[in-house]
Structures are given as C-alpha cells and as structure tokens.
Amino acid sequence: MIDTLEYTNKHELVFLDQTLLPLKEKYVSVKDYKDVIDAIISLKIRGAPLIGIAAAYGVVMGVHCFKSENRKNFEIHFYKIIESFRHSRPTARNLFYALDRMLKVFEENRDKEFEQIEELLLREADAIYDEDAEMCNRIGVNGAELIGEKMNILTHCNTGELATGGIGTALGIIATAKKQGKDLFVYVDETRPLMQGARLTTFELDKLDIEYDLIIDSMAANLMKEAQVDCVIVGADRIASNGDVVNKVGSYSLAVNCAYHKIPFYVAAPGSTIDFEIEFGDEIKIEERDSTEVTRIKGERITDDDVPVMNPAFDLVPANLVTAIITEYKVHYPPYNFGGLKHMFSSYIQALRKDESEVEE
Amino acid sequence: MIDTLEYTNKHELVFLDQTLLPLKEKYVSVKDYKDVIDAIISLKIRGAPLIGIAAAYGVVMGVHCFKSENRKNFEIHFYKIIESFRHSRPTARNLFYALDRMLKVFEENRDKEFEQIEELLLREADAIYDEDAEMCNRIGVNGAELIGEKMNILTHCNTGELATGGIGTALGIIATAKKQGKDLFVYVDETRPLMQGARLTTFELDKLDIEYDLIIDSMAANLMKEAQVDCVIVGADRIASNGDVVNKVGSYSLAVNCAYHKIPFYVAAPGSTIDFEIEFGDEIKIEERDSTEVTRIKGERITDDDVPVMNPAFDLVPANLVTAIITEYKVHYPPYNFGGLKHMFSSYIQALRKDESEVEE
Fold it and tell me: Once rounded to an integer, what is the mean pLDDT over residues B299-309?
C-alpha cells in the first residue's frame, strides 16, 4: 500500500509530492490550508477523488487555524476557505462534492462551539476518505466482472492509490482482477504533458506486480490495430447526467480508436463524479493549464517558452463512445440514466441547496 | 532559408545538429563517413529525404578517404561503406534509393581512376540533393491545389527544410500555399518521443511567418471533434505499392481520427519514397528505438530507466485511410497504383538489379 495522504493528530496534512515520483518519494507536511490549495494547483496532490479528500482536510485545517472568538468572522473565514478551494481546479466533480458535504456539516452545526464544529468537520473529512476507499473496493469488484481470465488492458493517466483514497478506480479494477488470479498485461499511456502514466501508473503497477509496457500516447491506436488491446479502462473527472465523460486529455482519441477497432471503452468512477445538475458534457468547464507544461519538462526547455500552445487538462468523451461506466453501485450501460443513483444524489443535493439558500437570506 | 546540410570543397559535411534545435543552432563538421552514420543514427540528421542526401555525401567522403592504390581493396571498401549506411536506419525508403543510385554510378564506372570515380559520385550526390529540392517544389505546387483559401491544417513530426533538400514535403505544401496568399493556421503535434513537431516544425513555421498552436499529440482528435481541423498533411518514410504508408509513430491514430471525423488525411512524399518491390505495408520493417527516448527527455529522467517500453519509430497507415498521396508528379487518389511512376521506377530498378547480379557472379 502507498501512503498517499494523511491528516495527523498534529493538525498537519502529510502527503506524497506526486510531481517528484517515481524518482523521489518525498513527503510534504503542511499546516496552512493555503498550502493544500497550492499543492492541488501544482498537482503535488492530484486525481479527482484525492483532490476532494485533500480539500476536505484543508477545510478542517483552515478552521483549526482560526484564532479569534468572533463568530461572524469565523463564518466569513469558513466561506472564504470553501471558495478558495472551489477555485483551485475547476473540472473535477469530486472536489465540489466534498466541499458541499463540508459546507452542509458546517451549516447544520453553525451554532455549536468552534472546537466542536472543527471536530464534526474532521469526522466528515474522515468519512469522505473512508467512503472513497470503500467505493474503490466496490468499483474494483464491479469492474473486475468485465475482465476476462487473460487480458491486455490499456489505461491512460493515473487512477490508482495515488489518485484516490483507496485502491483506485480504473487501476483499482485492474488490481482487483489481478487479485482474483486473472492473467493481465497493461499498456500504460505515458500521458503527456505531465506524464502521470509514465511516472505514477508504472510506479503503482510495479508495486502491484503486474506486467506492463509503457508507450507514448499516440501509439495506442497502433496496438489496437494489431489486436494487442482487449479493452481500455480510464477514470473520470466529471460525468454529465447523459453519460458524457470528462477525463484527462487524450481520452477522446482513445475512445474514437476503440470505436473504430471495436474494443470496449470503459470508464470507472465513484458516483460522486456524476454531476446531475449538468445534462450534457459540453456544459462542463475544461481547465486550460500553463503552456510551460508543454514547452518544458521538469523545468528543462524543449522549445522556446513563447511558442503558442493549447493545453487543456481534459477532454470530453461523448456517451455514445462509452461502452460502460463502472461505479460503486454497478456497471451502467447506455443509454445512461444512473437510475436510483440519480434520485439518491438529487435529494441530497436538493437538501443542500435549500440550506444554502436559507443562509443567503 | 535554413542551411540544413552542405558538402564543402574541403570534403567535409557540415550540418545543423537537429537534436539541439530550436534552443541551439549548432553546426557540426565531419570528414569521416562513419560520423555521418552516427549523425543519422542519433538523429542529428533526420527526415527521410535528408537521410538519403547525407548518405550519398557520406559515400563520397568514404571514397575520398581511401588511401591505398589497390583496386580490389577499393571495391571492398566501397561496398562496406554502402552496407554500413544501409544498416543505419532500416525504414526510410529514400536512404536505399540514394544508396542504389550511388552504387549504380560506381558500378558503371568501376574501371576509371579513383579520383574520377569520386568526382562522378559527388556529381550524383549533388544531383540527388538538387533533384530533392526540385521534387519538394513540385510536391508543394501539386499539394497546394488541395488547400483552400482559408484553412486550419494539422501536421505531425517535421517535414520541412530540416527534413529534406528543399522546402519540404507536407510542410513544403503549407509553405507553398502560404506563398500563394492563402490564409493558414497550423496545429503542430509535438510528436513524442523526440518532439520533432515541438522543436523543429515550430522553428520552421516561425521562419515562414505562419501562425500555429503547439499541441500534445493526443489532443489532435479533440480539435477534429470541435471542427478546428480542415485537413491533416503528413510526410512518409516508405510507401508500399498499394498505397500503405509508413510514417512517424502517431500517424495511424491521426488517420483513424480523420476517418471518424470525415477530415482528409493527406500524405506528401517524393516518388523515391515508394517501394515498388513491396506490395503491402506490413512487409515494411519498423525500426524499434531505444527505450530511453521515452524514459528520458534531454537526458533528464522522467521515470526509471528499467521501466519496460515499446518504442517503434514509425507506424503503418493502411491505404484505405489515406485520402490522397501527393508526389512531385501529381496528386494520386485511391485505389493507388502509381501508374507511369511505377513503370518508370521499375525499369530503373530492374537495370540496377541486373548490374548488381553481374557483380555477384
């Protein structure tokens, strides 16, 4: 097991700096919630579910550091923390899901002692973490049903222990199928520009003792042509109600190539990734990141820094190219409507919205 | 104009080290033909047509450095040089085309004085260089007919002045259309692993004063989905008689995405790229290169060096995905048979083979 992130009883968040992996396993310890935001923006902490967990602890840290006895200021401080985290990364749904849960706990307990509020928020953050680990296990079991006894699986980006509070989503399925004794070989897309596949997924597969080959992203199609790929499994950063999936840039090209080569394209993600307020994927904001992610690698210049660059972090895979979506509940097939899941989440969100509107009055 | 390569009257090959571009414009000067082979293997000299030109001059250099008067040894030395170049890079057709021409000149003049033979070989190498420049111009004019008044063009790898003896193939078409006053915007695939797009094509487009955006390879599909790409033009390293194209790895994924999005996929290459002895593309040997091209960038480690990697330099685009092939003769459409071109080249190659078999007897 990899110790990706831990909130200590010294009120510190200790996490593995994922930008340095796999060459350095360096742990960073921070006390200030703003350092958690910086770590999320700079991708020291990354992976949609893990971002949610880190943000939840970050909120606790922000509350812990509040030193005055003034309740009005305390409330203002709290909302400011929530807002700061909301603006850290705009695409991953799990971040907003976690923040909404923290907000709900705060608003249901706003009249309690500050220390008691902090304790309840910590309990909620722990719950988000624990639930994510449990969701990963269930996604793993549900998804492993789709994996044959002997399979070559291609995956993109990193979706394992480093990206979640548990065994992972797409990579969690691979880990679960391996544990069940299945004979697996994984093709790992390096995942430009930030190389999460080359750096993080290879690191995790080594620990899982699963055989793999690292490839450049544009080679995946070629392997499909040569019948080397039985299925593709990726994670998701946000899923629209109709099943449109936003995930790491490069996912769309894989999905098109899967359709062309008649290979299943699976998406694995917890229910908290589904945004029921958004009907179609094109309503989702895609984060554009700094051009130096493309023009430099590890600080080393590849080309001139003033070269014009397009660098979106994610792309959109339309539902019609997604063979199945695997959540902790079950394997969903098109047409996607997420049945009871939608109802469950909707009532939860409605309750939340009601609370929020009361606050504004 | 970029001075990519020159054979001087001091019997030196002076060339721009393309591995250092665009950050350093460093010229290297070599006298030994083995240094030319090293430069080809290490990609200091690259691009299928330019490799052919460099090899032709390399043969001249090898002959120039022969110091004995023994004719038998001279002949053995000559064949050894030819063989060494043949093994430098296995895929690019133009290399073999250039070496076959040098061989023919040698065998037609084998009884002449050594100095005279060297002079005739130099004349042939100059001819290969000049003809390549002329072929580029014609490819440019032929291809520009396919380019509308205002177009967004996506290209992969580098196919311009740095890759050829003239204005280039795919990039030569773009340069020609721009000269004709057309309003062009280019999307440049960075082209992992060696970044020829990011390093070389951006460098050339800057000099041509053509607007562009640099993108990671896996984003191309996304731009196609958003109707940002009017056509894709790439070069070729070898083309089979049936029109199957071998080109820089990533070309196949682009071709599949073009088919899916109903966007033309054009290939530009001189006739010397077509291998009439090969019927189908899958007979073409694809060069597998060192894994450190993927695990390191500019010597800097991305991941551990012992990570297993698949790193083919090229991939195969089946003829059915190629909208048109542009040579110096015309725009060829499927089904590809290369008509008179095939006849012309066949008789040339037959004559050559006849000469070679005579030598063996």
Answer: 93
Residue of chain A nearest B294, judged by CA positions: A216
Contacts of B111 (CB under 8 A, 6+ apart): none
**A314 alpha-carbon distance from chain centroid:** 12
**Which residues in chain A show pLDDT less than 50?**
356, 359-361
Which chain A residue lies closest to B215 (C-alpha atoms)?
A310
Query: How far is residue A23's CA from residue B303's CA, in Å, rounded to a whole number?
Result: 6
Q: CB contact, 8 Å: A304 with chain B?
A: yes
CA distance A351 to B27: 69
Query: Closest Cα partner for B36 from B95, B101, B121?
Result: B95
Find residues 336-355 of chain A whose CB sits inside 8 Å of chain B: none
Q: Does B201 touch chain A (CB under 8 A)?
A: no
Contact B310 A220 (CB under 8 A): no
Q: Which of A191, A253, A304 to mutate to test the interface with B (most CBs of B within 10 A)?
A: A253
pTM here is: 0.94
Element (H, E) at B168: none
Interface contact A311, partner B, CB < 8 A: yes
Could you report the per-residue pLDDT of B189-223, keeping only the tens digit for each? 999 999 999 999 999 999 999 999 999 999 999 99
pLDDT digits (tens, 9 = 90+) for B128-160: 999 999 999 999 999 999 999 999 999 999 999
What interface predicted TM-score (ipTM) does this complex get? 0.93
Rounded CA-CA distance A321/A234 in Å is: 13
Interchain CB contact of A260 with B (< 8 Å): yes
